[in-house]
Amino acid sequence: MLTTFIPLGVTLVAAPLVPGLINKTKAAFAGRQGPPLFQLYFDLLKLLNKGAVYSRVTTWIFRAGPIVSLASVIVAALFVPVAGTASLSFSGDIIAFAYLLGLGRFFTVLAALDTGSSFEGMGASREVTFAMFAEPTLFIIFVILARVTGSLSLSSMLTQAPLVGTPSMAGLLALVVFSLFIVCLAENSRIPVDDPATHLELTMIHEVMVLDHGGPDLAFILYGASIKLFVMVAMLAHLVFPMPDGSPVQSGLVFGSLMALITIVIGIVESAMARLRMVRVPRLLMAACMIACFGMIISLR
């Protein structure tokens, strides 16, 4: 039992490192020192030691939002392999994985609407609109992987990795990885879809929904966001390069190196380009969906 949940433990412990490495990469491109790599750990401890202030117009939904959001993403992390091993796996868990992420978003949106603020309602509207474009792309990617691997388990899809071992399928792998990379940026509110560092009311999407949260509630939101980002990057890492069948130490080193490389690529993307105009975000997500559809057509041949 203890060995089974080691991948989840690694995810829970190492997840805050991913945003830290992205911020370090962006600071290096800007010629700055930037915050420490472990800054998010310090922020989480500080927030957990603070109290929370709740408006009298909010209900239990506002308080439940951060808890349900964090719990759903932790359960979803059970299905994603870390260094080739997942804590939980069964046929059809891809559906559970996708809708657990959707459940977390649903309660975050409800908590934003529960405040009665038109400002947070605007952000909630943008969040669900863009999710409407991103979720079909994710399911099409799952269909492609299920078609190629013959499995409906997320762990088997990512660890078998027949795409890498077949030269004729290299183009299909590129389409899948690119589409999943765009979904990763959209699902985690990263540039060019959203800017997690902005507080401009005309451009905010995810950040505007959590403005009224503070203390432990905000810590749950930030921690859950880091876990979600870690999970999506881990999926990309397994698609880019399958984990070796050697010792756990060797697999862990390869996995850690790939995670760091993909995280640095995200930081480079955020440093090299600006946030897209709001009207162009659906075009980017639709382009990713069309690329994934083209990959599905190739997989059916």
Care to describe what's here?
The protein is mostly helical. The protein has one domain (38-299). Helices cover 68% and strands 0% of the residues. It has 13 helices and no strands. Helix 4 packs antiparallel against helix 5 (93-114) and helix 6 runs antiparallel to helix 9.
Secondary structure layout plus pairing:
Blueprint: H1 6-14, H2 17-29, H3 39-48, H4 60-77, H5 93-114, H6 118-149, H7 154-160, H8 162-165, H9 170-187, H10 206-209, H11 216-240, H12 248-272, H13 281-299
Helix pairs in contact: 2-12, 3-11, 4-5, 4-11, 5-6, 6-7, 6-9, 6-13, 9-11, 9-13, 11-12
Question: Summary?
Answer:
By secondary structure, this protein is mostly helical. The chain has one domain. The protein is built from 13 helices and no strands.
Q: CA-to-CA gap between the ends?
A: 42 Å
How do the SSEs run, as a string of H and E?
HHHHHHHHHHHHH
Q: Which term fits the overall shape?
A: globular
Rg from alpha-carbon coordinates: 19 Å
The count of strands amounts to: 0
Low-confidence segments, given as residue ranges, are: none
**Helical element count?**
13
Which bin fits the share of residues in helices? 55-70%
